Amino acid sequence: MVTADIEISEVGPRDGLQSIAPVMPTAAKKAWISALAAAGIPEIEVGSFVPASLLPQLADTAELVSHARTIAGLAVAVLVPNLRGALDALAVGPHKMTIPLSVSETHSLKNLRRTHDQVLAEVRAIRAAIDALPASQRPRLEGSLSTAFGCTLEGEVPERKVLEMAEKLVAAGCDEVGLADTTGFASPKQVRNYTRKLWELVGRERLHGIHLHNTRGQGLANVMAALEVGLTTIDSSMGGIGGCPFAPGASGNIVTEDLVFLLESQGLRTGINFERLFAARRLLAAALPGVELYGFTPAAGLPKDFVAATAQ
Amino acid sequence: MVTADIEISEVGPRDGLQSIAPVMPTAAKKAWISALAAAGIPEIEVGSFVPASLLPQLADTAELVSHARTIAGLAVAVLVPNLRGALDALAVGPHKMTIPLSVSETHSLKNLRRTHDQVLAEVRAIRAAIDALPASQRPRLEGSLSTAFGCTLEGEVPERKVLEMAEKLVAAGCDEVGLADTTGFASPKQVRNYTRKLWELVGRERLHGIHLHNTRGQGLANVMAALEVGLTTIDSSMGGIGGCPFAPGASGNIVTEDLVFLLESQGLRTGINFERLFAARRLLAAALPGVELYGFTPAAGLPKDFVAATAQ
After folding, report:
1. Which CATH number among 3.20.20.70, 1.10.10.10, 2.40.10.120, 3.30.2320.30 corresponds to the domain A7-311?
2. pTM (predicted TM-score)
3. Rounded CA gap, A205 and A66, in Å?
4. Other beta carbons within 10 Å of A178
5. ipTM
6. Which candidate in B244, B263, B272, B277 is catalytic?
7. I need a surface site. Which of A107, A174, A306, B182 has the fewest CB within 10 A?
8. Residue ranges of domains in chain B
9. B244 band by pLDDT with thresholds 50, 70 and 90
């Protein structure tokens, strides 16, 4: 197994599928998750523990966690909006749970129907539930700073608010925080600035990853800023499916296939095999007829005589 | 007038229109060029002096140069494949002439039907023709290093070949050289590496610009590398029209609208006004019915409360 320089966290099965109307059959999801893992993706967010009435597309998350847990070496991540979701998650044992907190409180109320204080109370309750488990069974808990780079409803989100919420998430019991450009407002300057300031505030070991959208075509340019400053985990979605369905105009995760090419072509190992990655994409395309998949690299193919860093 | 931190060289009227089947009427081209200039674009490549039988789309280049020359402050650039084209260009007085040399000789033979030595002989003849003019009437002559980052026909293009061709172009009389990712193979590492090595070899004053394609979605990520190393002129095309029609699979210039957003959002002034830029795009869309225009920023709109660096 290749040691990756940069870890890709595939969010398609959660962030992608939740935005798409057709429900992907559980068997197809399992096959897709297995294919992603076989391609070398080190971490997959397989679903979200939300009520099935809200997101019927993700109603099989528990079953997917159990399936993904059988894949050796794969880190299994899930989204949990609250304690109730976290308890359901803990019953099946993911390696990582992410709870989003919208730094824009307007967006928080609209998206999660909760104030900041209410979300932080959930975090504390989740922390207690985790700590009640034997140490070997405790998943990592990440607080995701949604709308950190700006909000379609509030506009500019003040930097001090981002820092304050990060500190509060850690104080409430998150092992780490993540930056999320929910609305596609981020600039490279912000990515560098927020990462450095958060590292100063909560410690470098508490912030590894970033979740970027391609709403204004800036996704991979922002990845360059993330690499420059030293972040090591990048979220992306196969075929660029998904985005935030609650932020009007915000659509399009960065495309895993193009991200892997960006990294491998500049000598950064992802541990991912392109042929198998494209095979996983074909599997996804077959399972979601009528859903548009994005990505330039799958369309253009790899450059003639290209050798990936991982293959060297 | 704002002093730009980064100059955008709009290549749509040349590189864009040459790849598109429908011929845009001359009056519409003039209106588009004027609208681009009114938006603050500092340099426009208005056409190419190739035989009308080869590219009927660009048969009105001389008239467009004359029109563009009437716009105060605008740098008017053209492509010239050879001495004959350069003489036609010199008759109407552009500020800059670019002659492409494909570093991959296979591509050179296929694209320009000339060996390296034959292209360099044309450069020397063009230099002599320029020098025969009074100093005040001499345009800058740029040699563009096409396929510098790899070739769809030859695969990897050796670094020593890129450096050798740059040196020979300067020796043959080019005032400057430019890097061109004709095939969409470039990685950020290559962009930084080639820029630094060329600066060492031919002097920093002889390399300012880069021409990047978005074939594998890497265009703006490569722009980030260009900015990091210190290049100051970036080619792009409104709506991303164009690319190299002779390189199979290579399509898609980087999108001017998304590039301007990338620069302005991180505090780099382009001198460009978004409202007028989007107006120029609407004009282009109306003049090219049925031609697909790319770009995420025009579709998503600017972020709420966004203030461009140029407007500050």
Report:
1. 3.20.20.70
2. 0.95
3. 28
4. 26
5. 0.92
6. B244
7. A306
8. 7-311
9. low
